[in-house]
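Sanity check

After download, print the first record. It should look like this:
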Amino acid sequence: MASHGTHEKPGRVLPASVAITAPPRHAAVPTHSATYDWGLATRVASTQSKHSRVTDLLLLTLAILLVAGGVVYGVSSLKPAAPSGSGVQYLDMSGNVVIPDDPEVQDPSYVQSADPQDFNGMRFKIPSRGLDVPLYQANVVDNVINPPGFTAAYVMRNIGVSLADAATGPVYVATHSVHLPGEAPGNYVIDPAQGTITVAIGAEIDVGNRVYSVVSSRILDKTDLASQADLWAPTPGMLVFITCLQSTSPSGYGADGHAKDNAIIIGKLVS
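Expected structure tokens:
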């Protein structure tokens, strides 16, 4: 999904019929209900950092780098071939094999740096859209928000504030969307054919034990995301949920094959 400097690159999705049947240790287990424990890391962070004094500086650095990047690794093609190479392999919510074009995300050292961990079984839900997936936390790595997985939503632990401190500042959640016929959490909040966000104003978003209400949403060219000062301001009780806007039209992608736009949903803390 994104980094203040994320470089979004398309990947390939393989049909479920050729999906790996015995995922390696870091792979997401195929399931339609997405009720499994993704479990890349078995331990749960005992603490999350408080609103850091360096947050503003970090956000500034990320915002500068974001001009040249995107937000979430999308998937842009369906190829009936077995995955090649080695490293971490990923599945989407339907059990399709996702192969990002950027090999870094498949490097176990990248996954180790991102350090994804679950929130003791907590969930990320948007009831009006039928979205109910595991909630994880992960690090921004090298100023790039790129969650290592396609079946969960991720609180980015080293920007904004922790979920425990949600009332004091912004919480950033990132997830992937994938090109159809793939299925990832971000696909539940967008309409690729219409190029729109499908979550209504006032809709409920549950981030673990926190409840937010959607107050606005916007679609942004990725080069414009860094200039949205309100999204990076230390606003108490703000949720910024970011995914990639996939498209059914070639016009939705740049010459490099990357989706041009991001879908941004902003929420206000209710409880």
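If your output differs, re-run the checksum step. Summary of this record's structure: The first strand starts at residue 11 and ends at 14.
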